[in-house]
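Project standup — Tuesday

K.O.: blocked on the structure for the chain from last sprint. Re-posting the sequence here as requested.
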Amino acid sequence: MSKLYIVATPIGNMGDITLRAIETLKNVDLILCEDTRETKKILDKYNISKPTMSYPSDDVVGKNSRQSNKLSKIFELLEEGKDLALVSDAGTPGISDPGAMLVSKIKEKLNGVQVIPIPGASAVIAALSASGLPTHEFTFLGFLPHKKGRETLFKEIAGAKRTFAFYESPHRILKTLESLAKFCPKENQKKVCVARELTKIYEEFVSGTPEEVLEYFIKNKEKQRGEFTVIVA
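H.V.: unblocked you, prediction finished:
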């Protein structure tokens, strides 16, 4: 039975990879990558010499001939009994990263393939663990929509009884904090934790009310860069 390993890779610090992930990448026949150039950095770091191939992204799987050819090639290799590893550029494939649709297609078409997760780094779990906010129950939203439905979503977050977690870009972090400050009731202000540049050299956690966190990022414009995970209690 051929195997497809879903391998989590570092989200920033190159040391955030498991021994099992390294061993898996060394032993598979081919590594399927979101971007082969990004994966090469990890492979070079850990002296892993294995062939790589980019895989079709979730939004174009089967929608054009080139992507269909890639999908067919992956099916062919698995049918031949080859063991493959699936990685994204950073973190766990399929969790707000490409790969979920590919896994779904493989499970649908190739019943004999064993899909095996190799767990590891995930920005949302890392942020939740160090946020100091309630984590016994939470909803993960991935990246928020750019326009349609944003206001409705912020209203839902403001009125929720559970913790919400989502990713945000540097271009929208201030607007997001402004929306949280606008919709969260002043009489029972929610706590917010913004995790920036997780596991990287400038990693930072900023906590407080939406207004307090917004004020911090307005006053510190240089902090508006990077990758953000937002936790709302």
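K.O.: great, moving the ticket to review. The two ends are 44 Å apart (CA to CA). The mean pLDDT is 93.
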